[in-house]
Write a structure and sequence with these properties.
The protein has about 850 residues and is an alpha+beta fold. A hairpin with a 4-residue loop joins strand 6 (about 85-95) and strand 7 (about 100-105).
Length: about 850
């Protein structure tokens, strides 16, 4: 937000040096990034560069000084042709002291070329010989000194200046033509010298994204009285009633809509002082009517839009137009002021009439009804719009605008009427039109003004400073809060230009921020905490989550974090059938074992077209990371811990369970100068990592069961079961799923698990055993069983039969072949026998072995196989 200081002085007296004012504004939250001097003398000892290191961020100082004796207001009395150049003219100019012959090529003087003395003098900015100005023909700002020279045989030593040469703007297509009342011979610095504060406005301070808003802050900081702009309008035209009507289809989208009418306007350039202010504030002047809408927006913060009223009547078949606000309908299109035809989204709010769309509400108007040179009657609109829908429209259309910048952050509906009144009066003054009596004002949804109670004790507790009731009340009154004081209690009601004050405890926090800003953050002392410390309690779930992270990193995995926002088609890629329908029995399965996804939580204001819903699985995002990295990193071992978002049947808020997802792909080890196992990772690598994780968490009673899931390869998928509860599924990703990702041909292993259920199973304490003092007895045992029998079932029976003297069971070989018969397999286990209090004898081991073999034969039909 660029704030010309001369404009700011219309509303508040500036009694501080500009650098000190910049410091105070910055400390109050309005960060002044630059002070640009336009003609005014810079502070003594200052040159262009950074200054004010005491600010939160150093303020840049820049600009040019207009020498009082060298740059003055001049008057051109005659424009004559140059004797030797068609593109140059000679001007008879008086600078208040003497007459000069000035040579220039300014195109805005050519209409007067050779027509004799002008009917009235043209007031200009005149630079005498020796003046330092910017070179208008060089890019950027290059200082030069005017020197006497000859151009095409005519001596030239001075010039009439453009805005670029004086540092006002980049415009150098013509010389500055001042208003007629500019005093001849006055130093230009005294007439229009200025400085511009470039302020970074944060979203919570959008109320200050205008000159009046900054003046409010200056008033609060310096206690100088505030002079508000006038909202009085001379209405001499016919009444507006019956000449236009307003229909608001949804007050939540459009809480207020106000229009006024001005007739018989003359489209012409705005007064130069208006053009100069607009340019200093960063906007390009267009004509007097359009300039009013921009001027009022910059002045009080209310964007306006001007319609050609006669175009609206023509669209209505000659009848009074009806202005309608509503959401866009399927297939509707609009050509906006930038000449682009736009397809409209269903969330876009439109201003329409009986014939169709007129404008993108809060963003940009339509080309058909814009003000042109032929416009004679203007319908002026001021409104308030839903900020979320405005943001979505700006994003979807890639159409940022000054109006949308303000509406997307929240403009109070009370400003709409003020904006229209102010705009109508300025249009009347600058165009000569007549304002119709009255306004059409549809205000179906006025916001409530919150009232918040605070006391000096609250202020001391929250801010650490002692302020009296009178001091607190003074600060809030300077911020235009309405107050009621009852003893030590202050009841503050927010002014009607602010939407950022909440109620209850939130409102108290908002008021504390306001008091701290105006009192001065730098004045709040550093003190020790005097309040009671909260009880120190652990966070078991967070601690376990960190343990899981540490264990997985130790196991060689790298943590990643992916977007929580996604699109349904992105998530559907992880199923072997796109968008699978839920089966009748699927609802009985845990969510991670289901082959389909439920209803999504959709975003009202998505950041991108492919980030429109909240994710229901971690795995799709993790696979996208693998896909992006596949060409650079042949081996990837990744995990992610984070929430997913599941729609709730009993609450408007979603369920947000935490999940753990793992992905492995590539060689088991990367090749190096030592021998490495470069075979691709497989199902058992992932299973081993899971088992090591569970062992590190001291979780017992773990089982793995074969499973079927649309994401995973048939026969290479298992569910993880702990204490009888399924925590998720894992395995090798299905070939059809792999085809949807750009990946190398190595196996892709993945799994997703319920982290909250896993955390609940982690014991607070666990038993430890002393290192055995007696040697173990090692033995291998191979049995032939049915192909369908899980190896885990065999190991369980071995453990039960062996009792406490079996300390370890490890499957080390699976064999299938003709020697053992069709439909059979051989499972070979390494058994460790060990007693804590003695060395086992061969006879004891033989008895345990016989008991194990007998149990396997009886319950599983297993047969002993010689190794």
């Amino acid at each position: 937000m660029k704030v010309p200081v001369s404009w700011l002085k219309d509303y508040v007296d500036i009694t501080l040096p500009l650098e000190e004012l910049a410091r105070r504004l910055t400390m109050a939250g309005l960060e002044v990034e630059e002070i640009r001097y336009v003609g005014l003398p810079m502070p003594k000892g200052k040159t262009e560069g950074r200054s004010g290191g005491h600010l939160r961020q150093e303020t840049k100082i820049s600009g040019i000084e207009w020498e009082a004796d060298k740059i003055v207001v001049g008057a051109i009395y005659e424009v004559m042709p140059h004797p030797n150049a068609d593109r140059l003219v000679l001007c008879r100019l008086h600078d208040g002291t003497q007459e000069h012959l000035v040579l220039t090529g300014a195109p805005n003087l050519f209409p007067y070329k050779g027509k004799g003395p002008l009917p009235k003098p043209i007031k200009v900015a005149y630079a005498r010989e020796g003046a330092r100005i910017y070179d208008g023909h060089q890019p950027g700002q290059v200082l030069t000194t005017l020197k006497r020279t000859k151009i095409r045989g005519v001596e030239s030593y001075s010039m009439a200046c453009s805005e670029k040469e004086l540092g006002i703007s980049e415009d150098h297509e013509g010389i500055i033509i001042l208003d007629d009342d500019a005093p001849l011979g006055m130093p230009l610095v005294d007439y229009m010298g200025d400085a511009v504060l470039d302020i970074a406005i944060t979203p919570n301070l959008i109320r200050a994204a205008n000159i009046w808003g900054v003046a409010r802050e200056v008033t609060a900081l310096t206690a100088q009285p505030l002079r508000p702009p006038s909202f009085q309008v001379l209405m001499e035209g016919a009444p507006i009633q019956g000449r236009v009507s307003i229909v608001i289809s949804d007050p939540q989208l459009n809480p207020r809509f106000v229009v006024g009418l001005i007739e018989n306007v003359e489209i012409r350039p705005s007064p130069y002082w208006v053009q100069r202010r607009l340019r200093l504030a960063g906007m390009r002047p267009i004509n007097n009517i359009v300039d009013v809408t921009n001027y009022v927006m910059l002045e009080i913060g209310q964007p306006l839009h001007a319609f050609d009223y006669d175009v609206l009547r023509a669209r209505a078949g000659g009848e009074p137009p009806t202005i309608i606000t509503r959401l866009a309908r399927p297939g509707e299109r609009l050509v906006t002021l930038d000449g682009v035809e736009r397809a409209l989204d269903e969330f876009t709010i439109l201003v329409t009439d009986q014939a169709g769309p007129l404008a993108l509400a809060g963003v940009m108007g339509g080309a058909e009804s814009e003000v042109s040179q032929q416009t004679r009657n203007v319908l002026l609109e001021g409104a308030a719009w839903n900020m979320i829908h405005t943001r979505r429209t700006v994003l979807a259309q890639n159409l940022p605008s000054e109006a949308a910048y303000r509406f997307s952050r929240g403009i109070h509906p009370a400003m709409a009427e003020r904006g229209v009144l102010r705009g109508l009066e300025l249009m009347r003054q600058w165009s000569g039109g007549k304002v119709a009596q009255g306004l059409v004002n549809n205000y179906p949804l006025p916001p409530s003004a919150p009232t918040v109670e605070i006391t000096p004790k609250d202020v001391e507790r929250w801010l650490g400073v002692r302020l009296s009731v009178a001091e607190i009340a003074d600060i809030l009154r300077r911020l235009e809060f309405s107050l009621r004081v009852d003893g030590q209690s202050i009841y503050a009601t927010a002014p009607d230009h602010r939407l950022d004050i909440g109620e209850g405890i939130v409102g108290q926090a908002d008021l504390m921020e306001e008091i701290a800003r105006i009192y001065g953050y730098d004045r709040i002392p550093e003190t020790r905490m005097a309040d009671a410390l909260p009880p120190q309690r652990g966070n078991p779930s967070l601690e376990v989550e960190e343990r899981i992270r540490d264990l997985l990193v130790t196991l060689g995995l790298q943590e990643v974090m992916t977007y929580r926002m996604t699109a349904p088609e992105r998530e559907a890629r992880i199923f072997s059938e796109l968008h699978p329908a839920a089966s009748a029995t699927e609802g009985h399965l845990p969510p991670l074992e289901q082959n389909s996804l439920g209803p999504y939580l959709r975003l009202v204001n998505p950041i991108a077209s492919d980030r429109v819903v909240m994710r229901q699985r971690l795995l799709p995002g993790l696979l996208e990371v693998v896909e992006r990295n596949a060409r650079l990193y042949p081996r990837q071992a990744l995990f992610e811990i984070g929430p997913v978002f599941l729609a709730s049947e009993t609450s408007r808020l979603p369920q947000e369970p935490t999940r753990l997802a793992l992905v492995l792909t590539g060689p088991r080890q990367l090749p190096g100068w030592q021998a490495a196992d470069t075979a691709p990772m497989d199902f058992y690598d992932l299973k081993g990592i899971l088992q090591a994780l569970l062992d590190g968490l001291h979780i017992a009673e773990v089982r793995y069961e074969a499973a079927e899931h649309s994401t995973y390869h048939p026969g290479k998928c298992a569910r993880l079961i702990v204490n009888g509860r399924s925590l998720g599924v894992f395995g090798e990703v299905h070939p059809l799923v792999r085809q949807r990702y750009d990946l190398p041909p190595t196996p892709l292993l993945a799994g997703e698990f319920d982290l909250e259920a896993l955390q609940a199973l982690v014991p607070d304490r666990y038993d430890v055993q002393a290192v055995p003092a007696y040697p173990p007895v090692l033995e291998d045992l191979a049995v032939v069983v049915d192909e369908s029998l899980p190896a885990e079932r065999v190991a369980t029976l071995i453990e039960q039969a062996g009792g406490k003297l079996i300390s370890r069971i490890r499957l080390f070989d699976v064999y299938r072949g003709e020697q053992i018969g069709r439909g059979k397999k051989s499972l070979a286990y390494s058994l460790t026998y060990q007693a804590p209090d003695r060395t086992l004898t061969d006879e004891e081991v033989a008895q345990i072995r016989q008991r194990i073999v007998r149990r396997l034969e009886q319950e599983l039909g297993a047969k002993l196989r010689s190794l």
